[in-house]
Amino acid sequence: MLNRLLIFLFFLLVLNNPILSIEKKNNVIFSLTENIMPIPKHWYFKAEDLDIYKEKNYDHSQWQIRAINQPWHTQKEYRNYKGNVWYRLAFNCTMCNDYTGDFALLVPIHYRGAQFYVNGILVKETRPFINGISPLKLGKPDSIILPRNLITNEHNVIAIRIGSFDYNSGFEGILYIGTLPEITKNFVQINLYYGLLIGITLFLSLYFIILFYYRKKERFYLYFSGMAFSFALWTAGYVGIIFWIVDNRIAYLVSAYCGSVSIVICAILFIHSFLSLRHNLFSKILLSLLIFLLFYCTTEIIFTGLVETYRMYFFRIFLLACIVYMIYSTIICIYAIKIGKPHAGKILFGVGVAYLFILLSILTWLHIIDYTPSSIEPFMATIFAFALILASRYAQVFSDLEKAHAKLIVLDKMKDDFLATTSHEL
User: For position 145, what pLDDT does the model report?
Assistant: First the structure.
């Protein structure tokens, strides 16, 4: 039963992700023609904070054009800039003649609170600004109402004022615009989707930790449980759901950064334990590096409440370690298949599932396809595949035990018959 459920969830994850959408061609002016549509990711950008930048008729044509979902603080010319920046984008409302209700923006998590203006009017602060400065907190994912009376048929301007925080900047994804009912519906669907993923992985974590309690020699149950729990923790931080549970910066940093490193550590331990392979020098070095990163990140959060130096000096090392982990796990799975380890091919399949999403990200980066990749789906698909393998193995072990038990019953009956016959003849 668990096998069938996991197979269903795996294909649901791959085929029915509500945020997998094809982006439209980027233009600096776009037309609102549908009930919900992605806003082009390239906006006019200015690393200067003047109040006049919110005005509808301000000429921003000489500004730089930058992707709103890419950090700006890493660029050489902005590394020492600590103030607010502005994004501006103009759009025409083609559907305004037929639609009389309010519109809305769907905003992902963003790396400091922001002010949103429409045609010069402030419509939302995701964090309260005091004297033009927002607190050192990330902006929650949210739906922002754009009152209909502010929108005209032609030349509307969305202006966003936002800062940087903790050596991070920009938005974690593109923004969407549409009618208020559709945006609200999509916002609820996305949160339910990720809430469901988090709930499933927490269930898997609890399920396999209980199995480990009864089968303590099989440590891979413990490692998988840790991997599933770390994934749930990381997902809650990565998509901003943690802010709706507890609006605390430390909780976000622990879930997003400590959780991500823990996933990879547990994954390496799980694969070695499940395939009964001893750790080699390379795996020990990789694990030592990841444990150091986890320790450093946790220590910085405890003592400073930030991860600024971790992001500045070590985050790229962590991303590189993730790539090395993918390559290394593939190699050891192939080696395990070669020496005849059971289930090695299935583990390789579980690792390979993540490559599909990574390939899509690479093709997007090369501009071969236009796809909005997510970092969550590769890990989630791998966890589902591993859970399916564990459930299959447990079912096989249970079946083998039943067969052995049946054979023992037959042998016991033969023993009783033999003793009865011998006693009678004596």
Answer: 96
